[in-house]
Every structure is written in structure tokens, then in C-alpha cells.
Design brief:
Oligomer: single chain
Order of helices and strands: HHHH
Number of helices: 4
Helix content: over 70%
Radius of gyration: 20 Å
Shape: flat
Distance between the termini: 51 Å
Structural class: mainly alpha
Largest sheet: none
Number of strands: 0
Length: 134
């Protein structure tokens, strides 16, 4: 009898670290170009604004998800807050709002996200930054 050939082992590819930032970036870029149109036709400048916005937000989310564990929770939470607040403030400023109102909204969102992320990290990590054992 002939021996069966061994089935090659499949490599597990973890796309979770790259797919979420890509999807968030694409959605943000599409929304950015939509808000900047103000109901008119899409121009090349608005298209490039959407592409650059998508790359920047997707890159920021990927960097914080990949390398964020190197930061302590006291610095990681404000980093997420700054990313979210900057993104929302920028979108609000594209709608034609004043710089002051966009900045205030961005700061409010940043403070809320930073507080929520700090609470999440504080309740789900031990003092050394490792996931809690429950």
C-alpha cells in the first residue's frame, strides 16, 4: 500500500489587525469626500482629500492597535482620544462650521473617548499592563 501524502499545514493569517483599520479608513475617507462636496459634484481635490484622510486615519488606527501596547494606559487612552477627537473635529470643520466650534467639538469627543478608553484599560488590565486573568 502506498502511504498518503501529508496534507500541507495551512498557515493562519491574522487579518484582524489590518482589516479593521482599512475598513475604518475607507469609510472615513468616503464620508470626508461626501461632506466636503456640499451637495455638488465630486472634484479631484475632494477625491484626494478623501484618500489622504482615509490613509491617515487608517494608519493611525493601525499604529495604535499594533504598537499601542508599548505605551502605558495613561498615555494610550489620550492617544485614542486625540485620534478620535481630531477625526471628528476635522469632519465637523469640513461642514462649514467655525474653527472654534470644530475645536470645541473635537476636544469634547477627545475627552470622552480618552475617559472611556482609560476606564476600559483600567478595568481590563493589571498594573503591569497585561490583560486581566478573568
Amino acid at each position: 500500500m502506498a502511504a498518503h501524502a501529508a496534507v500541507p499545514a495551512r498557515r493562519h493569517v491574522n487579518l484582524h489587525g489590518a482589516v479593521l483599520p482599512a475598513v475604518l479608513g475607507i469609510a472615513y475617507g468616503l464620508y470626508t469626500s461626501t461632506v466636503s462636496r456640499h451637495g455638488g459634484a465630486l472634484t479631484w481635490g475632494q477625491l484626494w482629500l478623501g484618500i489622504v484622510s482615509a490613509v491617515l486615519l487608517g494608519g493611525g488606527v493601525y499604529a495604535l492597535r499594533t504598537y499601542g501596547r508599548a505605551l502605558p494606559r495613561e498615555a494610550r487612552a489620550p492617544a485614542w482620544g486625540a485620534l478620535a477627537g481630531g477625526a471628528i473635529g476635522f469632519l465637523f470643520s469640513l461642514s462649514g462650521a467655525s474653527v472654534l466650534s470644530a475645536s470645541v467639538l473635537g476636544l469634547i469627543v477627545a475627552a470622552g473617548v480618552a475617559a472611556a478608553m482609560f476606564y476600559l484599560y483600567y478595568t481590563h488590565e493589571d498594573a503591569s499592563g497585561h490583560p486581566a486573568p478573568y
